[in-house]
Amino acid sequence: MRNILLLSLAAAALAAAQSNHLTAIRQLTHGGQNAEAYWAPDGKRLIFQSTRPPYGCDQMFVMNADGSDQHLVSTGKGRTTCGYFLGDNKHIIYASTHLAADACPTNPDRSKGYVWGVFPGYDIFLADDRGNIQKRLTDAPGYDAEGTINWKTGDIVFTSLASGDLDIWKMRPDGSGKKQLTSKLGYDGGPVLSRDGTKLAWRANYPKTPEETARYKALLADNVTAPMKMEIMVADADGANARAITAFGCASFAPTFTPDGKRILFASNKQECDSRKFELYMMNLDGSDLQQVTSFGGFTSFPEFSPDGKTLAFCSDRDAKDRYEFNIFTAAWRD
Question: Residue 167 CB: number of other CB atoms within 10 A?
Fold first, then answer.
């Protein structure tokens, strides 16, 4: 009885801590696989990727902030990922394989373990918010994806295989001024700039032994990477002074800066490494004052604050009716 009471008290304390940050949780999508919902600059819309009929893999959609008017803005061909609004509120970028083939890329060989496909057909495209492609922004051989935009500076940061390794690059919204920001061997991905444009955060996995290096290179040669050991990195906007601010030995990813730029919100399975149980956490830029923000008990990730900082968008399998159902949620944010 005492153990049950202690567990109940612990659960209540965790729920209370969570309620300090998230209230008025609202589900915007219902069914399918929906992820990576990012705000328009006016806070009235979200762009997100979704696998839903009749499409066999992720396509890019836009919806209103209340979940209404969900509509396709990609070509419906290939696979897409990582959509983001430009600062003018009228254009978007996203990565797509549609030039490589109309069909979805073949899923990675899971006999190699849990791996992600870094498909060489991915390039980043600029389109208007109705889905009309304006320009192909990348054309280097191999993977170019995972782009986000800083609305103040206009810089796009993204992951590219242009150097022969998965590094962080930046470019202008027209594709000019490409510059490599990271160069350490290993996977650097999911970059995001702070709102003032001075800091950069991303996820990384750097092999530490000859065996790990050999496996990383072998997987990359097959256009896949293993994502289950990643740490959160922070650097200056140009990639200088890079340092890891987590050391969990698990999968920590999807970092985003709080609106004041002083903390990072991210997803991690640190409570159960190598599992699909991811919650949201928050910490200072030096990794201190770690706080757990959600306790939904499944997969929760891809957080992003609305432009006014009052609402958080995220992806979760909370209340899912199927093992592979993931939906977009919003919640009022309290600091």
Answer: 23
**Residue 266, strand partner residues:** 281
265 is written with which tokens? 């919100």
Cα atoms in the Cβ-side hemisphere of radius 13 Å centred on 64: 4
What's the confidence (pLDDT) of residue 222? 93
Strand pairing class (199-205; 187-193):
antiparallel
Structure tokens at 204: 């990384």
Percent of residues, the chain, with pLDDT higher than 70: 94
Distance, CA of 144 to CA of 123 (rounded, Å): 5
Task: Show the beta-strand stretches assigned E in 258-299.
Answer: 263-268, 279-284, 291-292
Mean residue pLDDT of the chain comes to 93
Does the predicted TM-score (pTM) go above 0.90? yes
Quickly name the fold that domain 29-329 has. Answer: Neuraminidase (2.120.10)
Contacts of 191 (CB under 8 A, 6+ apart): 146, 148, 157, 158, 159, 168, 181, 200, 201, 202
Going from N- to C-terminal start, the domains of the chain cover 29-329
Distances (CA, A) of 14 to 17, 262, 277, 316: 5, 23, 16, 18
Phi-psi region of 97 (alpha: psi -120 to 50; beta: other; left: phi over 0): alpha
In the chain, helix, strand, coil percent, each to 5? 10, 40, 50
Q: Whole-angstrom Cα distance, residue 161 to residue 76?
A: 25
Residue 183's nearest CA partner among 160, 201, 199, 200 is 160
Q: Look up residue 146 and give its amino acid.
A: E
